[in-house]
């Protein structure tokens, strides 16, 4: 089961923002994708960065968004926690639903088995009765 995820890049996309349509390249000439920071200091702040690490890196880095103020950081972190908690609750509810479904399926199977057993019992009684009738026939 997948968690519910919000793609704020898509939700908050401003089609008038020319920077989002700009083809940003690092010093290697690579076309860069707009990334999103998930750190506590820069929650959901977008940036471009060279994808290479170590000795190959060119140190290209550019923030797309301005600095996030403290109140916004607090609110964003609280909302992220709320989404996480709701995902956990969703998992629990789905598990309970599966258990209830399994219980119901078992209950239905038991009723069907009981019905089949009753039918077999009735047939056996019918055969015994027929056997007795055949025995008692002159």
Automatic annotation (TrEMBL):
Q: Which UniProt keywords apply?
A: Metal-binding, Zinc, Zinc-finger
A single Gene Ontology MF term assigned here is: zinc ion binding
Per its UniProt record, what InterPro entries does this chain match? Znf_GRF (IPR010666)
- List residues of the GRF-type domain: 26-67
Q: Does the keyword tRNA processing apply?
A: no
A Pfam family this protein belongs to?
A: Zn_ribbon_GRF
In terms of PANTHER family, this protein maps to: ZINC ION-BINDING PROTEIN
The protein here is known as: GRF-type domain-containing protein
User: The organism's lineage?
Assistant: Eukaryota, Viridiplantae, Streptophyta, Embryophyta, Tracheophyta
């Amino acid at each position: 089961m997948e968690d519910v995820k919000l793609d704020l890049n898509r939700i908050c996309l401003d089609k008038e923002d020319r920077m989002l349509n700009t083809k940003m390249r690092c010093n290697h000439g690579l076309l860069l994708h707009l990334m999103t920071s998930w750190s506590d200091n820069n929650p959901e702040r977008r940036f471009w960065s060279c994808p290479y690490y170590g000795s190959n890196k060119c140190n290209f880095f550019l923030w797309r968004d301005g600095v996030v103020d403290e109140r916004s950081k607090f609110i964003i972190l609280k909302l992220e926690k709320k989404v996480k908690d709701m995902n956990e609750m969703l998992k629990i509810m789905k598990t309970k639903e599966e258990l209830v479904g399994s219980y119901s399926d078992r209950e239905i199977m038991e009723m069907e088995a009981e019905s089949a057993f009753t039918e077999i019992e009735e047939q056996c009684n019918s055969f015994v009765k027929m056997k007795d009738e055949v025995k008692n026939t002159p």
